[in-house]
Amino acid sequence: MANPKPSAAVPLHQPVHDILKPLFARPFAAVMGVLNVTPDSFSDGGAFLTPADAITQAKAMIAAGADIIDVGAESTRPYGDAKPVSAEEEKHRLEPVLTKIAALGAPISIDTMKAEVAGWAISQGAAIVNDVWGLQRDADMAGIVAQANVPVVIMHNRDVADPAIDILKDIAVFFRRSLEIAAKAGIPGGNIVLDPGIGFGKTPEQSMTVLAKLDDLQSFGYPLLVGASRKRFIASVVPSEPQHRLGGSIAAHLIAASQGAKIIRAHDVAETVQALRVAAAIGGK
User: Does 83 participate in catalysis according to the annotation?
Assistant: First the structure.
């Protein structure tokens, strides 16, 4: 694996947010552990629905080396069959766990597309907003993020996959629009992380194209987050169920890190941390 690229992709004129700064200073990518408090997420729906199970899993991921815990209470699985829930239901699922997980010490990322939920979660201890619609689905989201002065993950998404489009051009157009929204709201550039949205609104082939050409997105000058964990494109290469895609997930994440991705979002934290750190150590020789 090639040497991971340094953190110079972050605009030098924009101070990096204090939460992100120590993560981007290391030679290996940070790991964001996935914690779904939902009954219907594509990989682990229902596994951590009870508060006790969710808190136990958060503790286990932190012990395994997770730098951030990404907590979501509405399935956004990228296959078009997730059931939307109200802001009230999201908060109902989050309320028993959010402050307790925040007390564990690792920053919490709130995985939501709703500004109301994001604002409430920040008041409960969330430190990062992870918006799978990149500030473009809820008109109030950018203002909430700016007012709270927290980092935001801007993810590319589409309602449906279109195999005929140039997916990298589509991502570029989407990111430019999201960055315009962020700038207008007053979100500092050093608070922004871009996520190409592997599996979201993309065919398996397009997801692999994005991973192969991730370096093209470095031109935006913002750190990149990649979440390929257990995604369906892996099964298009080697047929497998989500829980049996660890090898493919690690392969994709190592390729992403070799192209400069600074945050890897993963279900299997211990294995991902080990793979990233060993690859970085070998690459540094």
Answer: no
